[in-house]
Amino acid sequence: MSTAVDYPPGPRGLPVIGNTVALSRDIFAFFEELRDEYGRVASYDVFGTDACMIAHPDAIQQVLLGNHEAFEKGEVLTRNLADAMGEGLFVSGGEQWQNQRSQVQPAFYRERLTTYVPEMRATAAETVDQWHDGMIVDVNDVMTATTMDVLGRTLFGVDVTDHPVVSEASEAMLARFDTSRFWSFLPDRLPTPTNRRYKRKLGELQEFVDELAQQRREQHPENRGDDLLSILVGFVEASDLSQEEFRDNMVTFLFAGHETTALGLTYTFLCLAQHPDEQAALQAELDAVCDETVTAEDLPKLERLDRVIDEALRLYPPVYMFFREAARDVELQGYTIPEGTTLVLPQWAVHRDPAWWDDPEVFRPKRFAGDPDRPEYAYFPFGGGPRHCIGMRFARMEMKTILATVLDTYTFELVSDPNPDLIASTNLKPGGPIEIELHE
Ligand code: HEM
C-alpha cells in the first residue's frame, strides 16, 4: 500500500482572493459542488489561506474523536471571536479548556437539567398564552425571544427581557459574521459600520455581565443557588477563573445558548407546518404520555417528537459548518493535510449527502427510527468528541418542552415561503420571516 502524500484536490479561484467570491455568493452550493466535483475531502482557498473541506463521515469522526488531539479550534475562529469570547469555553484550548469544561459541567448534569423543565414549560406557556386562533406568528422572532428568556431564567437567574442589550449584541454579532456579505471575510480591525456597531454592542454586553456578577457577589453564598452564574462567580472568588474568563464565558453561553436553539425550533416549525399528519401523530403521542402538562419525566417518552427534531436539525442544522486547524501534518482519507491547514466541517453538505440519505431533501422523521444503516458521523448537528456541544441535552429538552406546550393547544400551517432563503451567518438563519397560522 502506498502512503498518502497528496494534498486534497480542489478548484483554484482567482489570484489573491481565491474562492472567496464563490464562497460568499452561496456557501451552501459551494460546499455541495466541492463535494460532488472533487470528493468528500477537498481543498480550496480564501484570501490566499489554504482550507480543506472535510465532508466524509469517517474523516469527520477522526477529526472530532479518534485523532482529536491533532486538531485545534484554530486561527480563523480564534481571531474572529477573540474580542467576544477568546478566553471562554468555546474558543479556549488545552488545559484552560479542560478546566473550564469541568467547572461548568455540573450545570449540565442530567439531574440538574431536569430541574429546569418547569421553568422552560412556564416560559413556553407565557408565550403561547399571548396567541389566539387564526393568529399569524413569525416563529423565528418569537422563538428567539422565548429561548433567550429560558436561558436567562435557568442559567443566570435574570429576566433578560428587561435588558435589550443582550438581543442587540446578538444581532450585531450575526451581522458581523454574515458570510453572504463579502466583507465578513475581512479582518474585524477594519472600521466598517457593522464592525463598529459590533464592538460597541459587545462592550455594552460585557458591562452588563460584569453588573450581573457584582449583584451575585453581593448575595450571601448560601442564598445564591447553584445556577451557571453562581458557579462561575464562585470560581472567580476562589481565583480559579480570571475576570476575563468569567466575562468571556458569560458571553459564550449567552450567544451559544439561545440563537441555535431558537433556530432549531424555527426549522422544526417550518417542517411540521407543512406536515399536518405529523402534527396529529405528535398530539396523539402527547395525549398518551402526558397528564396535564409536559414534565421532565415525560420528555424521554416523547420518542416521535425526538425524531421530528432530529430530522429538522438534519435538514436545517443551525450550526451549518465549523472549523478546525491541523496542529501537525495528518493523514485523512488517503490525503496529507499539512500542519496549519484550516479545516471546514460542513454539516449542511453532509446532512444532505445522497451517499448516506435517501431523498435527502425530503422531511422524513422515520429515518431516525431503529438502527440506521449509515456512518455515525453522517449526522453531527451538535459536533462530536470531547468538544461536542455541552448544551445539547439542555437544547433538546427545551425544544421538546416548547413544542409539546404549543402542540397541546394549537395546530398550525405555513403561510410563508416553504423554501425560505437562508443566510449563512454565525448560524443558519432564515432570510425572511417564517410564518405560521394558528388553529386552536
Ligand atoms: C439546537 C441547539 C444547538 C446546536 C445545534 C449546537 C451546536 C453546537 C456545535 C456543533 C458545537 C461544536 C462546535 C465545535 O466543535 O467547534 C457546540 C459547542 C458548544 N455549544 Fe452548542 N448547540 C446548541 C445549543 C447549545 C446550548 C443550549 C448551549 C448552552 C446552554 C450551548 C453551548 C455550547 C458551548 C459552550 C459549546 C462549546 C463546547 C466546548 O468546546 O467544550 N449550545 N454547539
UniProtKB/TrEMBL annotation:
GO terms for molecular function: heme binding; iron ion binding; monooxygenase activity; oxidoreductase activity, acting on paired donors, with incorporation or reduction of molecular oxygen. PROSITE patterns: CYTOCHROME_P450 (PS00086). InterPro entries: Cyt_P450 (IPR001128), Cyt_P450_CS (IPR017972), Cyt_P450_E_grp-I (IPR002401), Cyt_P450_sf (IPR036396), Cytochrome_P450_Monoox (IPR050196). Gene3D superfamilies: Cytochrome P450 (1.10.630.10). Keywords: Heme, Iron, Metal-binding, Monooxygenase, Oxidoreductase, Plasmid. The keyword Metal-binding applies. Belongs to the cytochrome P450 family. This is Cytochrome P450.
